[in-house]
DNA sequence: CTGTTAGCGCTTTCAC
DNA sequence: GTGAAAGCGCTAACAG
């Protein structure tokens, strides 16, 4: 089980000399063993191991054009939506012995461009998650390298979409059932596909119930944004808020608590992505998240492309549903101070 | 601002031909512009841009041995301890135009070995976070490539350590002040440096207060582990638990709640890492986390090594402190059944 | 200041 | 079944 005696990296020539064969033979011993004498292969492999020889990824890549690397670019690693996705993508890539570069655009399209430029010559494929780039730029980059998208809908580029439409619709139905007549959507980044999709789903569902809808837009989706936007929320006459994501929702909850407003008695809150589990108090009603599946599927799509299984115009949609917990209740009636004990998780 | 007209990747020779110069000149225009005629550089750069030429990272790496890549290997991307660290490391690497490979060992040393093997030929340096490898393997790999460590203390290898000793000691003092006489440590992975450190700090601090200490060891640090270990905790006579990390602590809280045990009235819980903020209910008393600083410092250390500023036996220690929130209180007295109504979010 | 010439370590025809 | 040689795209001495 010894991995070799450590120290300096050996080259193929070293192995060849030690084994008394040519470089080509060593090369083949690793890449196409079947075309070599069985014992030759054994001998070479053994010697290589003793020397601690590891094939040079870079040289191989330069020679073949296949790097065995792919780039995963996300908008914010620290946003809890991404880690499970990253992990799943990683695992999937690993099964095919791919290495993954991680890029963090920090919600900035220019940074994203820059990252891609830096990655493009050393990866076989790009996987952009929640890209903030314009469709044009995406198409441009897609011409340079195989590319797949997650939560971004650009025709002609294989993509997997977590469709929160279904979940958001359920959320609105739920709020309507509870008697809410006026809600507010706390928006995410305007360049976010998920945001547009959620806003639209919310508006059309609300229309069916004759609900009034306000919209308020913080700059970035975060705890702090949610907290900061509470005054604006209170300025409207809404009795419930649907937030772009759980982080924002959590911030709203804190902001409400700071003003002595009790949730869900005096105000209802719904999140999106279900990244917090039941950890908040009250536990957050939210739309389910399938980011790990998305990550896995995204990598699979990309690798399929690389294997020539041209995915064509694949558009994989993962739907979602509402997870009802304890931040939603009937709106407070004037003069009637309702109160609800924490009900168990649905 | 146009980034070139898209499509196929051009080579340096293309640019050279288009500009009517030699390849070397083009090369120099990018790497040492000062040694060239100012206008020559301008012309070349402009033509390159028009063509959409991007220098080939791989070829450059093969030629120079400098890849401009580094590998960041963590034990679990999805553990909330890591994302901020990853983000900070990324940012720091970005300032020096480095690309970062992300590896996920999933707490498995063999996987870690495998990842390193895959990375080692295409990175300039390795940054291992909370490595689960034996000291011998770490030293072995460190001979192959410049390496820095985070939360792993191996002599001779530059490392940054988040020292929870101070924070844990404060936690024990705090529990002693509250009157606890018997506590239990819910352990993390045995191969974790942080775990050993926390356990030791806890034991020695407890000794000073004449406290009894039990230890229980789940396999991996996670919400589920914490939840599952509750029966064992209750089997002991401890009145307070200190958990290896916040996730485990959160699991314990859930497990306790499921058994109708109220925290902190009937049992106190302390976490480590402060990754949950005040999001739990009751909000968790925990030891502060400085993972982002650690990530930043780790990358800085590594890059310093690469620049020849031999860091020698650098050992950077970041200390921590206790963050007191609402999961700790005096132990319940026999015969006195305390009860606490849900207080608002801290 | 700029062009020529060797490689970096590996794969890959093409011969034997 | 195995070897020899060319070349992937770039950099780095050398010359001039």
Automatic annotation (TrEMBL), chains A, B:
<dbReference type="InterPro" id="IPR000843">
    <property type="entry name" value="HTH_LacI"/>
</dbReference>
<protein>
    <submittedName>
        <fullName>LacI family transcriptional regulator</fullName>
    </submittedName>
</protein>
<dbReference type="InterPro" id="IPR028082">
    <property type="entry name" value="Peripla_BP_I"/>
</dbReference>
<keyword id="KW-0238">DNA-binding</keyword>
<keyword id="KW-0805">Transcription regulation</keyword>
<feature type="domain" description="HTH lacI-type">
    <location>
        <begin position="11"/>
        <end position="64"/>
    </location>
</feature>
<dbReference type="InterPro" id="IPR010982">
    <property type="entry name" value="Lambda_DNA-bd_dom_sf"/>
</dbReference>
<keyword id="KW-0804">Transcription</keyword>
<dbReference type="Pfam" id="PF00356">
    <property type="entry name" value="LacI"/>
</dbReference>
<dbReference type="Pfam" id="PF13377">
    <property type="entry name" value="Peripla_BP_3"/>
</dbReference>
<dbReference type="InterPro" id="IPR046335">
    <property type="entry name" value="LacI/GalR-like_sensor"/>
</dbReference>
